[in-house]
Amino acid sequence: MNDGSSQQDATDETTGATRAKVFAPLDIAPLIFFRIFFGGAMVYHVTSMAWDQWIHFFYIAPVTHFTYPGFTWVRPWPGDAMYVHFTVMGVAAFFVMIGFLYRLNAAIFFLCITHVFLIEKALYQNHYYLICLLSGIMVFVPAHGSASVDRLLKPSLRQVTAPAVWLWLLRAQLAIPYLYGGIAKLNADWLHGMPIRLWLERRADLPWIGPWLNTELSVSVFVWGGPLFDLLIVPALLWKPTRGVAYLLSVVFHLINALLWDIGIFPWFMIGATLLFFSPGSFRRILSLRAVKVLEQPRNRLPWNRRQRLLAGCLAIYMAWQLLWPFRHFLYPGNVSWTEEGHHFAWHMMLRDKGVGIRFFLFDRSTGKRGLLKVSTFLNERQLSRMGKDPDMILEFVHFVRDHYREHGRDELAIRVLALASLNGRRPQLLIDPHIDYTAVERTWGKQYWVIPLHEPIQTDGWKLPLDQWENELAELIPDDVKLVNPVQRLQRSEKGAQIPD
After folding, report:
1. Model pTM?
2. How is the chain split into domains, by residue range?
């Protein structure tokens, strides 16, 4: 009887200690800082998209959009309504920043930014995905109890502390891209110096540092420094003795990224967001604010209430998804950078450089005649550049063209695709089977049998032959009925020499 009572006491003490750590009150200052910073960064992000005319070019003008599996129903608003959408999104971000109707506007911003993200797969970037996740978390984070309009309008909302779980959830979400980005770089191509060697060669024209970038020493620094930084930076930020140096290193890292690669707001956003790894009291000391006295909670025999159990369960499910989902590419055979199966939402950053030449042939089953599809009639440059290297996007585009011609009474057309791809400087090979009529292939979640496995070995120097010479050099790979009769016609370029690491 005593043994059972002792075991129960030990269990109660353990669960009580866990509850005390998860829901311990912490100074709310870091959450207030992140609300203001996140809202301000998103105002800038939305404004820059409007200024650069992204709204029209990417969301209104295209005749079709590439979708994520399971989200084919997500479409842009008709006409010019996307301008209204972005206006609402920008206003919501501003209200999040100042803390006005905070939770409502955080939810509006989350729905708006996620809708924009899901509309066009060709615009996928890991940091856009991260922004969507963080905006969803912000809906639940109690970040309006101080320095907010809500606090001024309703004094009873005043808070000087918040449960520790919210700060740790934000830190965990920021840490995941670093961790998984580092793990992903531990692959043969990266350790062989590809594709970073190719990208550094293309930046050799930069003043001052350009000549240094085009050396084997610089390649080695990036090859080994990249994964080491990704894997160690979060532990270094969490440990007080190394936190200051680690943050300075992260600033240098992101400034280098901003200089070398065209990745928009991401480096600047991460420089600010990484401040969350400093202690809560640091924010008040920097601003010379009065410190908040936090009362320590008892660590045992404190029962979990229903709300806490529900919150803990939901957060456990969310974190399990975040930790497991990036590894789903192991469920598919082949190189994920080649097949693209499991590439998205996995924090695979700067792992692939794909030069692609692609051509679509229309075959009339009733007459036997064939024609070459003018892809630019349907896609803009960004869509074409991304579509060519992703077999799933190629198939989705074929289905769009098939349905387009069927609407015009052309049910008898078959569509075959010649796609030659060079991954990380390899000699180009066929990406997908050119003998198949892709109008009859259905889009599935499983392995795509028509994707040809990667068999070309990695090369030290990289493939340098211009795209317009590929066809002659690789003639043995191309079936006769998808070769060009007119030698003036060429393969269409698809992201040969891309500068945007994703």
Report:
1. 0.90
2. 27-281+307-327, 352-494
